[in-house]
Design goal:
By secondary structure, the chain is of the alpha/beta class. The protein has two domains: about 220 residues, 3-Layer(aba) Sandwich (Rossmann fold), CATH 3.40.50.300; about 55 residues, Alpha-Beta Plaits (2-Layer Sandwich). The chain is about 30% helix and about 25% strand. It is built from twelve helices and 13 strands. Strands 5-6-7-3-8-9 form a six-stranded mixed β-sheet, with helices on both faces. The chain has a four-stranded antiparallel β-sheet with strand order 11-12-10-13, sandwiched between helices. It is globular. The N terminus and C terminus are likely disordered. GO terms for molecular function: ATP binding; ATP hydrolysis activity. It comes from Kocuria marina.
């Protein structure tokens, strides 16, 4: 393999401004997928893009990258419009679950040619990761298993070191051991070369320790945009016998509830107060912090249909 390609590190010469989105809308025919989205993705942070299936997460990433045209609104990356912008193209990397490659590509050929597309490409890292993920380097990508395609996409996303990296569940094809390897290498890559990452996932609790900020979408709208700790503090769970749980809940807004036998679990909107804790203790009701997985389930059960959009 060729020697490492060394280019200017954009983070040193031109610190990123992040991603700014204002009043963004996207419709497919009469179906509104994104509705008046206004959100900022701060630079050099890992942003979790969360929500139920079909709420517009993939569409949002695709519109940011101009892979799909917006209906209206503003998108800026580093203060520039990404439409027909070659400078921004080489600063972004997008990998996703169903990653497509050319029929004649092999992992070896891709890792040779990609440094020409990414000025920040780290060949040493690519050469280290490929065997760790057990990539069959001479096998055509059409012959790779789903897990091997996922592994290849992950190697590309980490080695590219793109200042703006978009990851739409590329690791869903991996077994638990290789997912753990991805989390390890992702954390190491962010520590050594911070970048702005937008990470969409269904494996929310698995990746929660990697996230710094959470953007949650429900029915095409941003309903949560918060630091990870603030997001976790935005709701809490009460668990116990139904009559006493309902008494502790009182007039608080309930986001979700479910029963297991005679035990009722209720996800309550808002931060748990000292009075909430006192009442729960007095009633022998468990009061627990909400997990991100529970929060997404509680806040985002409805969705539009991302399947209408091809990426």
């Amino acid at each position: 393999m060729s020697s490492p390609v060394r280019h200017t590190d954009y983070r040193e010469s031109a610190p990123g401004q992040g991603i700014r989105i204002r009043n963004l809308n996207k419709s497919f025919g009469k179906k509104h997928v994104l509705r008046d989205i206004t959100v900022d993705f701060a630079p050099d942070r890992v942003h979790g893009l969360l929500g139920a299936n079909g709420v517009g997460k993939t569409t949002l990433m695709s519109v940011i990258l101009n892979h799909t045209f917006r209906s209206s609104g503003e998108v800026l990356i580093d203060g520039e419009d990404p439409r027909e912008n070659a400078r921004l193209l080489e600063r972004t990397c997008f990998v996703h679950e169903d990653q497509k490659f050319h029929d004649d590509d092999t992992p070896a050929s891709l890792l040779r040619i990609l440094p020409t597309f990414y000025p920040t490409w780290d060949t040493d890292l690519a050469e280290r990761l490929a065997p760790r993920f057990k990539l069959p380097m001479s096998t055509r990508t059409t012959k790779l298993s789903r897990g091997q395609r996922s592994a290849l996409a992950i190697v590309i996303s980490l080695a590219a070191r793109a200042p703006y990296t978009f990851m739409d569940e590329p690791y869903l094809g991996l077994d638990p051991g290789h997912r753990a390897l991805f989390y390890e290498e992702f954390a190491r890559a962010m520590a050594e070369h911070p970048r702005t990452v937008i990470l969409s996932t269904h494996l929310i609790d698995e990746v929660s320790d990697l996230l710094e900020n959470v953007v949650m979408i429900e029915d095409g709208r941003v309903t949560v945009d918060a630091d990870i700790d603030d997001a976790r503090d935005s709701a809490f769970v009460l668990r116990g016998l139904e009559p006493v749980v309902r008494d502790v809940v009182g007039a608080r807004r309930v986001l979700r509830e479910y029963r297991l036998g005679n035990i009722l679990s209720v996800t309550v909107d808002g931060t748990a107060t000292a009075e909430d804790r006192r009442r729960a203790d007095a009633a022998n009701v468990s009061l627990e912090p909400v997990t991100l997985q529970e929060l997404v389930a509680a806040r985002g059960m409805r969705g539009t249909d991302d399947a209408e959009m091809s990426v």
